[in-house]
Model the fold of this input.
Amino acid sequence: MKTRYIHYGHKHFSEKLFQKIKNNSMFPKPNGGFWGSPVVTAYGWKQWCKGHKFRECSEDNSFRFELTDDANVLHIRSMDDLKDIPLVREDRSWYCLDFEKLLKSGVDAVELHLSEDQDLLLYWRIYGWFCDSILIMNKDVVREIKK
Done:
């Protein structure tokens, strides 16, 4: 069965929600793209928001989606998975992935499985990705699941 994702803050997917990916050499997350979190996960966006009293994640103001069968997803589960990924910047604090280069090479989405990282090194190296989440870089791979 395909992984299902959820996006909070909008009731339906619209191409207007999607912005072109641009690297941010000062922060591990890019500008643009479209974000979601796995519906079934140990620690997703809803859990993070609740734990940090950040915002309400209402099922009434969300939608679920899957990716197309041909979507090319880069999965990051540990520091080992970062070895061959192109970087814009690397220093002692964090890695800034080259999302523009990844997209040009055919990667449609980057999924972080942060809850699988036992030593938390990954958490600090790409600080700002606080939970299990997916960054969609190619809007054409998103398929909304109708309620």
User: Anything to note?
Assistant: The chain has three helices and ten strands.
